[in-house]
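Hey, weird one. I pasted the Protein ROT1 sequence into the form twice and got a warning about non-standard characters only the second time. First submission, copied straight from the form history:
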Amino acid sequence: MIITSLFALALASFAPVAYSQDIVYDSIHNATTLTGTWSSGSRGVMTGAGFANPANMTFTYPKTTGVSFSFTDDGFYEISRYRFNGNGSEPTCITGVIGWVHGKYTLNANGSITMVPLGDGFQQVQDPCAAVSNFIEPYNITETYVQWRIFQDPTQGFKLHLFQFDGAPLAPQFLVSPSPNMLPTTLLRNTSAPTTVAKRSLEKRSGNGAVANGWTMGAAAGMVVAGVASLIL
């Protein structure tokens, strides 16, 4: 009995250990590393300077909607997002959401990615049909992507596919730069400890503690026109 136990223990000591960063890159589904800056569509939305100013919680609006992710090789990430959400029952009630967040990511052994924010992320929500039509709120939510894949597109180069916690795919992103284009990977605004809620979508938001801004009817009309054009495209 003792000999059997010792033999089993010896075998266990030689078992392979799965490290979270031991990802196999191959031409089938991970043609290159995550490191770098990725952007969707026309690449109009980019991480780094020129999109968001975390110090005063402001944005420079890009000309097109889209999403951009950046990853460093030592575990930091940054996300820039800009999109419109349509309303089937009220076609003129188009909600615009622009957001920025950064933090640390982990490549898990099961193939998923966990992204934990540093605590200074924020987003601006514009909804012409809401009681408060324009406000800014913190966005510090832990995000989980159950899968990620990188393919070699024959015409546009490396293409990144991310799948959200429920399996829904994000818009594919293309490698813009192999070196990550990011703001500093430290807290960029004095803030309280981050509140992280896993598996929450951007649409599920609350106005509590939001910073309301003035928004004229002309701006609202512009948002509707831009939103309709974005949805058509």
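That's the output from the first submission. The warning seems to come from a hidden character in my clipboard, not from the data itself. The first strand starts at residue 36 and ends at 40.
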